[in-house]
Amino acid sequence: MLRAIIVLAFGKCYLLNIKRLIMKKVLQIAFLLLFIVAGCGPSSKITSTWKADNASPKKFKKIVVVGIIREADRTLREKMEQHLAADLRDLGYDATCSCDEYNPKTFENMTEDQVIGKMRNAGVDAVLTVVLLDKTKERYYVPGRVRYTPYVVYHNRFWIYTRTVYDRIYTEGYYAEDTKYFWETNLYDLTENGQQLIYSAQSQSFDPISSETLGHEYGQMIAKDMVKNNVLMDLKKNTVMKAM
Q: Is residue 2 in some structural domain?
């Protein structure tokens, strides 16, 4: 009888321990999923915006996107220009990037008036510039850690022991690197007495996965912000609403 009671008590204790271990694993997986989801968020954010007092949504005939980024990051410049132009086209504007419209030496030895005149002659009445103000890299050390999960029930039987005890887990330390980009994007209206700055936004991008991802996120972010601030309008949406 006593033996049966001991076995029953031990069985309950063992099941309770297994339940605790399962719950702990579930919580670990839940925290991991939350971390992954958080890491999938956008890498760019706008830190400040400005618009001219007289700025109002306007239907420009043609917008050219000009990236001012050093030659070493030429691929990044092209991605930023292409995605910004594509997102402007999604709003219904005729937009193109300078990497497709002009070659790198098009404006060499030209004065400001000559550049503006050349653009106007090509039907351009607005220019959206994207400037990489700064790019920093931060290298930091992620230390190794030793984690030990203690067991609640100890028994001298191998089968039970292997299910109630965890080995020490050692993860070696390593160096990681984060890259931060600091941007400024300006929209110029070329139809107003030469040229007028009507919108400006400063933003940051933190450790993007790739230049393709960065360009995609940034283009959508800026296009939405210009519509939100009544600098541009969603021409496609307005057309659909009028049709209804």
A: no
Q: Is the pTM of this model over 0.85?
A: no
Residue 48 has pLDDT above 60, yes or no: yes
Alpha carbon distance 69, 36 (integer Å) = 31
Structural domain includes residue 196: yes
Domain with 81, as residue range(s), is 42-243
CA angle 44, 233, 45 (to 5 degrees): 10
User: Tell me, what DSSP letter sits at residue 106?
Assistant: T
The helix/strand/coil state of 236 is helix
Res 222 pLDDT > 60: yes
pLDDT of residue 130: 92
Distance of CA 84 to the CA centre of its chain: 14
- Give the CATH number for residue 226: 3.40.50.10610
Q: Is residue 24 part of a domain?
A: no
Would you state the structure tokens that stand for residue 70, as one six-digit string?
């050093």
Per-residue b or e along 162-197, where b marks 16 or more CB atoms closer than 10 Å to that residue's CB: eebeeeeeeeeeeeeeeeebebbbbbbbbeeeebee
Residue identified by tokens 């132009």 is 85
In a domain, 192, yes or no: yes
